[in-house]
Amino acid sequence: AVDGATMPTTGQSPEPSPADQPSEADAKQPAEDTARTAPTQTTRSPREGGTPTSAARSDREAPPAQLTKDNIRVQPGSVVTVEGLEIKTEAPRFTAVTRSSAQPRNPTARVTFDTDGTVIDVALLEDSGAENVDGPVLAALFRWKATGSKLKDRDGPFFIEFTLLLR
Questions:
Q1: Residue 36 pLDDT > 70
Q2: Are 88 and 119 in contact (CB under 8 A)?
Q3: For 85-124, what is the HEC assignment?
């Protein structure tokens, strides 16, 4: 033993220090009633206003509307005109290795625009079949911009589905 301290023998745990023991303030606190704090689930009928979707939603919370029924085929880097909007697209930036070795399929993407024309969401509905192509394609889709008088008529986000002509 060092400095008068005793070492526990094998199989014994050391005695708790004063910091490990509850303080007098803690001992005076009543134990929490688990029945009182347990979460409860209540179901109310729609007539009582109990459904979470019964509250009014802002335009930002509304799901985006589909602008066109048709899938638009586009060569990235060009300008597309659809339904009174002009969409300036950007071409993906591929590495030299990807350009020389990839044999991608033409991916299909759903691009969601906000009412100011910026892209707020992108989803690949059909990928290109090559991860080293899909990454740059997604990055390019987020750089697209919509302009036009029809943007002012939109009361919320909208999406358009595109097939990107990569080959």
A1: no
A2: no
A3: EEEECCCCCCCHHHHHHCCCCCCEEEEEECCCCEEEEEEE
Tokens of 10: 């094998």
pLDDT digits (tens, 9 = 90+) for 120-159: 999 999 999 999 999 999 999 999 999 998 888 888 899 9
Amino acid occupying residue 86: E
DSSP conformation class of 143? T
Number of residues assigned to the chain:
167
Candidates 97, 95, 96; CA nearest to 139 is 95
Do 80 and 89 form a contact (C-beta atoms < 8 A)?
Answer: yes
d(CA 155, CA 58): 10
